[in-house]
Amino acid sequence: MIAPAPRRLIVVLGAMALDLSLLAHAAAQPAAPRDKDAIVTAAFESIVPVLRHPRCMNCHSKGDYPRQGDDSHPHIMDVKRGADGHGENAVQCATCHQDHNLVGFHMPPGAPDWALPPPATPMIWQDLSDRALCKLLKDPLQNGHRTIRQIAQHMHTPLVAWGFHPGDGRTPVPMPYGQFLRNVDDWVINGAICP
User: Fold this and answer.
1) What is the CA 188 to chain-centroid distance, rounded?
2) Is the pTM of this model over 0.85?
3) Closest CA relative to residue 83, chosen from 92, 94, 74, 73
4) How far is Cα of residue 119 from the mean position of the Cα atoms in its chain?
5) What pLDDT score does 28 carry?
6) Who's near 141: CB < 8 A, 6+ residues apart?
7) DSSP conformation letters of 17-53
8) Which pLDDT value is given to residue 52?
9) How many CA atoms lie less than 13 Å away from 75 in the CB half-sphere?
10) Which end of the chain is more exposed for a tag (fewer CB within 10 A), N or C?
């Protein structure tokens, strides 16, 4: 006859089995985020490729003029920013750009309020690091005296939405617009932390 195992040994073996079961369960679950800051900075980093896409960069690049095309060449009509961002003299943005895309290749794209940012706050982020871009978006002295929530509201406008559906012959932003907005909102609502 085999002597029964001491009660203490049974308890230890039972606890070890429970620990192994919990470890297996934890391994099957998605990893919990380590900290909120990491989640928020990841949300910002997920929107950076959109902000650096030609559809955004053509209005947020160096110089006092818009750019165009996937190669971001200077606007062929020699358009300038102007005092309010809507162009100068007879070459106002609205001269060619309507509130919608015109059908056909090489036709002017359009969305409501087509314009560059005004010269006082041109919102140029060409060549900025991700951190510097984040700080620019949050700085009222550089962003048109907007709160970060107002910057997020700008991302919800038809002008920004245009970049995801830019019309014939233009490469759209390669992210669903809804996903972009969720990422922007996640970043803003959770504190708009910079990387």
Assistant:
1) 11
2) no
3) 92
4) 23
5) 46
6) 121
7) HHHHHHHHHHHHSPPPPS-HHHHHHHHHHHHHHHHTS
8) 97
9) 25
10) N
Compute the C-alpha angle 59/61/65, nearest 5°.
65
CB 195 within 8 A of CB 131: yes
- Name the one residue in this structure whose structure tokens are 């369960």: 25
Burial 176-189 (b: 16+ CB within 10 A, else e): ebeebbebbebbbe
> Which of 47-53's residues contact partners 24+ apart within 8 Å by CB, and which partners?
47/180, 47/183, 47/184, 47/187, 48/130, 48/133, 49/174, 49/175, 50/163, 50/173, 50/175, 50/180, 51/125, 51/133, 53/163, 53/173, 53/174
Over the stretch 73-90, which tens digit does the pLDDT of each residue have? 999 988 999 999 999 888
Q: How far apart are CA 54 and CA 37, in angstroms?
A: 29
List, for residues 12-46, the tens digit of each pLDDT value. 344 444 344 434 434 444 444 568 899 999 999 99
User: Nearest 5 degrees, angle CA 53-CA 58-CA 61?
Assistant: 100
Rg (CA), the chain: 26
> Token pair 């070459």 is at which residue?
91
